Amino acid sequence: MAEQPLPPLHAHTTLMHEIQTILSQEATLESLLTRCIIVLEEVLKLGAIHVWTFNQRNCLLELNCQSIHSFNQSLFPCQIPLGISVIGLTAQNQEPYLTNELDHPLCMIQVDDKIKDHFQAFAAYPLLAANQLVGALAFFSPTPLSAKVQQILGWVMTTLGYAIAYHQSQDQLQSRQDTILHRLASQMQNTLDVDRILSVAVQEIQEIFHIDRCNFIWYWPNQYGGDRNPNQLPTIAITHEAKRDHLDSLMGDCSPEYINVLSPQILVLERFEVTDIESDRRLNGGAEAGIGASQYQGMYDLLKDWNLKACLLYPLSTHLGQLGAILCGQAHEKRIWTDIERDLLRAIAGQLSSAINQAELHARTKASAFAAQAQAHQLTETLNDLKQTQAQLIQSEKMSGLGQLVAGIAHELNNPVSFISGNLKYARSYFQDLLSLITLYQSHYKNPHPDIQSLIDEIDLGFLMDDCERLLKSVDMGADRISQVVLSLRNFSRLDEAEIKQVDIHEGLDNTLLILKHRLHTNDSRRTIKITKYYGEISSINCHAGSLNQVFMSLLNNAIDALESVTDEREIELVTLPSTMTLVTGETIQTVKIMVIDNGPGISPEHLNHLFEPFFTTKEVGKGTGLGLAISYQIIVEHHRGTLTCESALGEGAQFVIEIPVN
């Protein structure tokens, strides 16, 4: 059987030239491989050529293209697993299979008589790139394959393998580019955090480009008094970075000499690209329009200092005038930047520009909203303060009116009580004289006149003589009691003691209890509230007596109100004891603690946090203003530099603790 005639040398050259020309063109992989098949058919007279590409995800050879043939049957399957059929074995073993005898079985390929009539040889080649499987090619030949043709085919297969690998890598790169653009777009939609967006961007660019470093550079024109100061350099800083671990960081502000180098490149918004700083004629003495030799020398020094052999600098700007740049760099080897990489970087720069602009607009809008909210909050606080002040003034006027009323009542009661108390001793003396006279009459006139005896019996003279002394004693006790009440009322009102004076705390508590005595007793089945005093040995303190009595009144009233729902034993404890307080300066001062403790139902935690807020009350409408504790807190904390706290839990009663300095 004669071998395939060797094609002329010029045909061999033409084949190589045409395949190289085809593969150098921009087109889809399927289109390029189809055109290469046509060339192989025309030059080498091959037929039924099939080309598969290897899908690494599913480990299948997938039919990419085939030559047009007149056979009715499908010669090969569209998908072939590795190791299955002669094609799968060829790909798995990465060794070509050639036979010049079609009568031998071809690993499950059924060759009918029609194919045998047209062809005498069959070959299957793995398509490799750097020893990695990228596809397979199979064909029939009308004549046996010579060694020279096999040599030519080896070159063709190698060329096609690298072409497929290149296009697959470009497809993968394009896919990853689409992924990063989609990821950045999603990131921008999900967050307005520019710092996070830029961090993701530099990390993704470094990974997809397989470069040594990627940085983001900010450019801020310095301003002075609202206008740019021409005598001051702008600020350029590297704020985000993704790099190989062994490389030094470039993060931070740039030096003035590098600011002068980078500023023109960023301001003109033009891409600056270097493949190899040592062979770039611009950086080694050349000059081009728009930039001088000194500028290029500065760029050369910058790249050397940053340990970059190749770089791609892509400036960007936002609609609001912010400027920045993406820097891609290779440290130890030159880098030829592809159009796909340039396009991707341009797309990323556009997305980043939009994201930064959107974030800035959002920040400005948020700042305006925050300012409006703060102003509204301030107005609300002012209104609340005015309401609180008004309510406190009303409450203070009420307390002042109450004090004046109490003082007036005490004054009006004091005069008649003093009159009664002052005349009681004279009345007792007069009574004793009259009693002596009656006794003398009875001793001399044993048998009085019937009319006198009748009157003696009618008025029960003996009882009157015995009861008059007891009557006078009762009047005396009542007068003393009224005098004590008058004194308590005067002490409670203390209109003459608005300024700070030395006061007996125990006297203030007792006077307040005296006024509230009517609330301690009930007419229903509930028990009377028991008052237990644990007074410690404390000296008089300097305070506003009237306002402090107002605090005692508020705390005791609240304790009595809390015991309204208690049916068992009801008790209020009053505790006083000396203590100390440490100031923020570290100084320790002498204080007095006053505790009002009840065994009521207690206070819930959510209410406890708002207890001293103005207008906060848990009482029914009309039974409380929510100002008593708020004013008490103000009196203790602001007027006396002390503390007022409450400790309570549901079911465990409440304990209010006042602590004020002695002086």
Overall CATH architecture of the largest domain: 2-Layer Sandwich
Main β-sheet description? 6 strands, antiparallel
Strand content: 15-25%
Quick one: overall form? elongated
Average predicted confidence as pLDDT:
80
The number of E-state strands comes to 21
CATH class of the largest domain: Alpha Beta
Number of helices: 16
Regions with pLDDT < 50 over 5+ consecutive residues? none
CATH superfamily assignment of the largest domain? GAF domain
**Percent of residues in helical segments?**
40-55%
Evaluate the radius of gyration. 54 Å
What structural class do the secondary elements suggest?
A: alpha+beta
User: Could you name the CATH topology of the largest domain?
Assistant: Beta-Lactamase
Distance between the termini: 127 Å
Strand order of the largest sheet: 3-2-1-6-5-4
Number of domains: 4
Tags for this model:
Beta-Lactamase, 6-stranded antiparallel β-sheet, alpha+beta, 16 helices
Quick structural overview:
By secondary structure, the chain is α+β, with helices and mostly antiparallel strands. The protein is 50% helix and 20% strand.
